[in-house]
Amino acid sequence: MAAVAHYWASCAGGLEFALLKELENLEGTSIIPGIDSYGGVQFRTTSAPQKVAELRSADNVYAFLSHHKKIPVDKESGMAFLGSLAGKIDWEPVMQLHRLWQETEEPDSSSGISDPLLTINGMANVEQTHVTPQRSFRVTGNRICKDMKKHGYTSMDAAAAIGDGMHELLGWPADMRSFNVEVLAWIIDDELLLVLALIYSGNKKKTKNLQNVSNINEPCAEVEDVEGSEQVKSTKKKRPAERPSRADAQLYSRRPYRKALVHTSLKPSTAYGLLQLADVQPGDIVLDPMCGCGTIPLEAINWLGTRVMGLAGDFVDTAVEAANINATGHCDVVRWDASMLPLRTASIDRVICDMPFGNRCGNHKVREVLCPRVVKQVVRVLRPGSGIAVLMAQSKTMKEEIEVNQKAYLNLQKHFYVYMEGLKVDVFVVRRTSEPAPTQQIVRPIKNMAKRKRDGQLTKQAALENLSSENPVQ
């Protein structure tokens, strides 16, 4: 009988439904409720790591260690509590799961993932010689204050206290760079979730990161390349040991189409959740009019194969370049203005769009003008009666545009929030009514659109001119 493994799978808060749906179809899996403050799902399963790694809606999977509510928040009692946690954990099944994940990863696979326990310090043949490699570890702490003012300790204090307890109990040395075991402590107010990382070096392939020009259309976590090199013996100069790349140590980093990224590329796991909301079916044409590096249509093709057709476009040259690098034969990439789409009326089955939001994605005043204009184009290109759109945005005018201005053409089926990198973002799921598209959805181009700054944003002066001279389109 296969051993039962205890996991925590993370995802964007609000999209847990997609992860739960996948887990329900994972053999030998039981969901464990009770953790609502964090984006993710706790579960136990007898399925092999290879099957768990196929979860599309999970950002990452971890070995579950412990979860605590009403933890002390003052420094003295808080440090004492955190320091005692290591002694309350049964480490044997956790490390067996950790070892199993490392053994099932093939260094020469397409994902390029190798085992940090077998490669560190040059111990490439540990498994064959049955020599136990020396483990080194680090603890990474992250604190968020939502409903309370502050903690009495910092994230580093919390990590140090937990690390001291682990070192005293297990005898492992701490190493902030060349660790092969990482424990993550996530603290939200007086709640703590403790997990152990199972993936340490995701996609080893060279990923072209086009960051010189920011993408205003796909806001999410920036992917950073972590510099470092393997420790080598040298009499002249000793270089630091390689540090596992946190950006690549994610399940979604294994997607084969992630060859080029932009400044704020959407996570494929989040894109998969949006595809579920859109109920994408074989034979559909999937459009992202503000595509960034093309994650949404490419995720649809990677999931359903050639049974769907992807169509992507963006105004920013860097985004179009990245999307073209990533695109497959069943996804066309075009440079366009999303407020004036060069597409036939009633020609698209699904529109899924991650509209610009956040401080790194343009002037909010410009977004308040741009987003409703894009909605008008969505109305025009969607197939009447069957077309579905999923629009993710942070705009005060979006709900009014959908529920009031486009009421005759769009039926709002669902409106909820998704939490991405600490930002609260609106998600609108709408279905196209059978009413024919209006013939006079005239949209004028935003003034000075070509005069974007290097980061792809409109200048403040142009934004103010647009707002002062704008005439609403009925």
From TrEMBL:
<keyword id="KW-0819">tRNA processing</keyword>
<dbReference type="GO" id="GO:0005737">
    <property type="term" value="C:cytoplasm"/>
</dbReference>
<dbReference type="GO" id="GO:0003723">
    <property type="term" value="F:RNA binding"/>
</dbReference>
<protein>
    <recommendedName>
        <fullName>THUMP domain-containing protein</fullName>
    </recommendedName>
</protein>
<dbReference type="InterPro" id="IPR000241">
    <property type="entry name" value="RlmKL-like_Mtase"/>
</dbReference>
<feature type="region of interest" description="Disordered">
    <location>
        <begin position="227"/>
        <end position="248"/>
    </location>
</feature>
<dbReference type="GO" id="GO:0016423">
    <property type="term" value="F:tRNA (guanine) methyltransferase activity"/>
</dbReference>
<dbReference type="GO" id="GO:0030488">
    <property type="term" value="P:tRNA methylation"/>
</dbReference>
<feature type="region of interest" description="Disordered">
    <location>
        <begin position="450"/>
        <end position="474"/>
    </location>
</feature>
<dbReference type="InterPro" id="IPR004114">
    <property type="entry name" value="THUMP_dom"/>
</dbReference>
<keyword id="KW-0808">Transferase</keyword>
<dbReference type="InterPro" id="IPR029063">
    <property type="entry name" value="SAM-dependent_MTases_sf"/>
</dbReference>
<keyword id="KW-0489">Methyltransferase</keyword>
<dbReference type="Pfam" id="PF01170">
    <property type="entry name" value="UPF0020"/>
</dbReference>
<feature type="domain" description="THUMP">
    <location>
        <begin position="112"/>
        <end position="198"/>
    </location>
</feature>
<dbReference type="GO" id="GO:0043527">
    <property type="term" value="C:tRNA methyltransferase complex"/>
</dbReference>
